[in-house]
Amino acid sequence: MNDRQVTASIITVGSEILKGKIIDFNSSNISNYLIKLGINVKYHLSVSDNILDLIRAFKKIEKSDIVITTGGLGPTDDDNTKKAFAEYLNKKLFFDENLWKELKKYYFIKRENIPESNKKQAMNIKGSEIIENKNGTAPGLFYNYNGKYYFLLPGPPRENIPMLKKFVIKKLKSKKYTGNPLYEKIIKIYGLGESNLADILKNINKNCEIGYYFKREGFIELHISKQGKNYTQLKEMVDRTLEEIKNKLDKKKIFYTDNYNLNKLLFLKLKESSRTVSIADTICGGKISSKIVEIPGSSKVFTGSIVAYSNNSKIEILDISQEIIKEHGAVSEKVSREMAANVRNVFDSDIGAGITGIAGPNGGTEEKPVGLVYFTINIDDKNYSFKREFIGDRKRIINKTINSLFIELIKLLDKK
Amino acid sequence: MNDRQVTASIITVGSEILKGKIIDFNSSNISNYLIKLGINVKYHLSVSDNILDLIRAFKKIEKSDIVITTGGLGPTDDDNTKKAFAEYLNKKLFFDENLWKELKKYYFIKRENIPESNKKQAMNIKGSEIIENKNGTAPGLFYNYNGKYYFLLPGPPRENIPMLKKFVIKKLKSKKYTGNPLYEKIIKIYGLGESNLADILKNINKNCEIGYYFKREGFIELHISKQGKNYTQLKEMVDRTLEEIKNKLDKKKIFYTDNYNLNKLLFLKLKESSRTVSIADTICGGKISSKIVEIPGSSKVFTGSIVAYSNNSKIEILDISQEIIKEHGAVSEKVSREMAANVRNVFDSDIGAGITGIAGPNGGTEEKPVGLVYFTINIDDKNYSFKREFIGDRKRIINKTINSLFIELIKLLDKK
Fold first, then answer.
1. Would you write out chain A's pLDDT as a tens digit for each of its 416 residues?
2. Cβ proximity of A189 and A61 under 8 Å
3. Which of A8, A401, B35, B316 has CA 20 to 30 A from B205's CA?
4. ipTM above threshold 0.90
5. How far is the C-alpha of A407 from the C-alpha of A409, rounded, in Å?
6. 312-371 of B, contacting A, C-beta below 8 A
7. CB-CB under 8 Å, A53 with B18
8. Least CB–CB distance from A299: residue in B53, B309, B312
9. How far apart are CA B387 and CA B404, in angstroms?
């Protein structure tokens, strides 16, 4: 068993998945855990609640060493996973008094009466091991079938993930089933196109696996990984490859982070330098500050923001003269400079950022097209201004503006 | 064929899916289209790029009348879907000069030279029909195999969805393969728990299928649908059931929308009544206004917003006296009233909204716990104040606050 790759398949159960009503996040979640143990995931299979389809599904993936199912363990008529599994094994289900006691306890703690329908969840298969579910009524089930491992888990991630961490992974680690572990490092690269990425990766040594994923938020996630027995060796190889890549990115002045989100990184840099920031924005509609505020504790580094949509509000609150707006236009470097300096005064912050731009789809002109953005960062009484021309729809332009601002802010904070 | 349910299966190809690196949205997207045609989706299967695994995958779902694959049509070594399909059919691939010409044209328009590697994408199977891809280099392929329909589509949704709409659905509609169509209505219900939902649905007539899906954004999506031959009859049954449900919701004063997002609905109501709104917020960090600004054209109904985090900024910009903050606390009905009235003045809008609260995880006290929210809507010189106590993490509390504010705003706009 140790000499060949251990394989796993995941079955997600639920007619709603097949109807396209809900998206299956479980398969991806679970795969992430398995791959770190060196297990080769062969199939993700989604199947309806129908008992015959379910039995067929178990047959379709029966060559896998490990099978994990999610869903179909509830109390309703639609919940057939245990029944189908028992039929597949040619075993009978029995009413498990101990399991019933546990279920009653669960309801007792919630001060509710247990419905009769829950009796279904107390059905068990002889020879199985029950997997405790602390976040719901559906117990999981583990079954060792001639050396093949079956894990039946409930559907909701908040129930199956703790069970995965506390039971499944432990079980897999304790047995011969663990393959070669995977060592992985992830970096996020901003402002790089596909062909330029290929260029960066061209002469990198190829003894690690390098995967890249274009993220909707406007960056590339680079996964550098290696599977093997010797942890020190793996780490050494992956880290060396990562260093090589970072050197190339540094040379080309391409921005990347070590698997941090930009808002988190910005928060840490602001905290580190004990500075506060405020935002004046006429394009992102408040999304810039909301990204900062996502991070708990952000009130320590963020004093406030103004979203000025009417020209009137720019003049009154941000104290930008009508003449400047007339001369340069509301979307201009000049206005962004005024905004940055004035918002800093208004909110009494160490850093002020002023962002103007045209998110579209309307409002663009030949001279100032949709996607044009000017922003200024006022820091240590100096102004740093930037011009950007983004392409894409409204949402992408807004997201790219936020990324671009955060990157320049982080760079300026790193400088000091 | 017309008397039994037509079945389909979807194969998504890509090792990244099995490694949990990317989430398969294609299966769900495609299922949504198929179910509307009355086609019964039997399996979603994800499989690696490995050619043998791919052939096995075609075998596993060969009982389905329709098979749609996505992915593995690119120019690299990993792209094996066409090759595996040809082997599965026991056919040979040939280099298609016409396809090659089309690919060259695609590059010519982009003013780029076509790489040699793209020759792989010009390979074809005799007897197939090519599906044009206007958004990428990977052509799709349709094959009628003894009455079974195979559609091979590229992986990116922006490529496969147009092909699905323009080719696949037309093909299915034009042949005997179309089953009984589905008629469906969707409503979004806010502020309702699971047990109360069961209560609402208890005595509803059961001749339609009713599915409900708890959405992370804090609402329940209710899908009322019916499959059958007679469109008028279907429509009549679904609409009647929907009316019944709406009556029950109205009676219990539960808010719902006809498949509109709240921000879109609010935008329409504001536009309809020719009014503008401005926001002063100390909890959501700008997310309220960013939700409004998501809608193109929002500058017509939104004049601006202030996110005041420091007490100082509340006093200075929103003109709230230190005494009021001292006496009532920054999170209070009184402060939210002042904010609503003053932000209206600052941004010269018809409606002002002031929102205060504690998003957590820190900052709560026994008297004012995490999740406490006060907000006030100032409209027609009247103040409408609301108190809410939400549970959940920071993100959920922020999202529930936004939903709650938008609902009360919509209700007040409806009143007039």
1. 344 678 999 999 999 899 988 889 999 999 999 988 889 999 999 999 999 999 999 999 999 999 999 999 988 878 899 999 999 999 999 999 999 998 888 877 777 778 777 888 999 999 999 999 988 889 999 999 988 999 999 999 989 999 999 999 999 988 766 667 788 899 999 977 666 787 788 888 778 888 887 776 778 888 898 888 888 999 999 999 999 999 999 998 899 998 788 999 999 999 999 999 999 999 999 999 999 999 999 989 999 999 998 777 777 788 888 899 999 999 999 999 999 999 999 999 999 999 999 998 988 999 999 999 999 999 988 999 999 998 888 988 999 999 999 999 999 999 86
2. no
3. B35
4. no
5. 5
6. 312-313, 316-317, 346-348, 359-363
7. no
8. B309
9. 10
CA of B377, closest CA in chain A: separation in Å?
A: 19
The C-alpha atoms of residue B46 and residue A45 are separated, in whole angstroms, by 6
Q: Among B147, B126, B173, B142, which residue's Cα sits nearest to residue B73? A: B142
**Cα angle at A200 between A194 and A206, to 5 degrees?**
110
One-letter amino acid identity for B263? N
Using CA atoms, how far apart are residues A201 and A188, in angstroms rounded to an integer? 14
Q: What is the mean pLDDT of chain B?
A: 90
Length of chain A: 416
Contact assessment for residue A50 and residue B47, using Cβ atoms and an 8 Å cutoff: no
SS (H, E, C) B175-186: CCCCCCCEEEEE
How far is it, in rounded angstroms, from Cα A180 to Cα B23? 24
C-alpha A357, offset from chain centre: 28
The pair of structure tokens assigned to A146 is 């001639």
Give the count of beta carbons closer than 10 Å to the beta carbon of residue A158.
9
| Residue with tokens 């960090």, as numbered in its chain | B285
Give contacts of A35 with chain B, Cβ < 8 Å.
Answer: 19-20
> In terms of Cα–Cα distance, which of A267, A314, A184 is closest to B348?
A314
Return the structure tokens found at B32. 């949504």
CB B383 within 8 A of CB B337: yes
At A221, list the tokens.
């996630």
Measured from the Cβ of residue B48, the count of other Cβ atoms closer than 10 Å reads 23
Q: Give the pair of three-digit tokens for residue A271.
A: 């905290």
Of A42, A285, A313, the CB nearest to B293: A285
The residues, ordered by sequence, that sit 6+ positions from A141 with a Cβ below 8 Å of its Cβ are A82, A85, A124, A125, A128, A129, A130, A131, A150, A151, A152
Could you tell me which of A306, A298, A386 has the C-alpha nearest to residue A342?
A306
Residue A393 token pair? 């729809």
* Token couple for A93: 């289900």
Tokens of A59: 């047959």
Distances (CA, A) of B139 to B122, B125, B190, B404: 8, 12, 43, 47
Q: Would you state the structure tokens that stand for residue B375, as one six-digit string?
A: 């907000």
pLDDT for position B177: 62
Closest to B286 (Cβ–Cβ): which among A303, A307, A359? Answer: A307
Structure tokens at A242: 């990562």
Reported as type and span, the H/E element at residue A401 is: helix A394-415
Q: What angle do CA A282, A288, A291 make, to 5 degrees?
A: 160
Sequence-distant (6+) residues with CB within 8 A of B75 are B115, B117, B118, B119, B120, B121, B137
Residue A400 near residue A392 (C-beta atoms within 8 A): yes
**Which backbone phi and psi does A104 adopt, to 5 degrees?**
-65, -40
Torsion of CA B225, B230, B232, B237, to 10 degrees: -40
- Phi, psi (5° rounding) for residue B176? -60, -10
For strand B302-308 and strand B277-281, is the pairing parallel, antiparallel, or unpaired? Answer: parallel
Tell me which H or E stretch contains A7.
strand A7-13
Q: Residue A164 and residue A233: Cα distance in Å, rounded?
A: 28
Residues from chain A that touch B309, judged by Cβ atoms under 8 A, are: 299, 302-304, 347
CA distance B218 to B398: 11
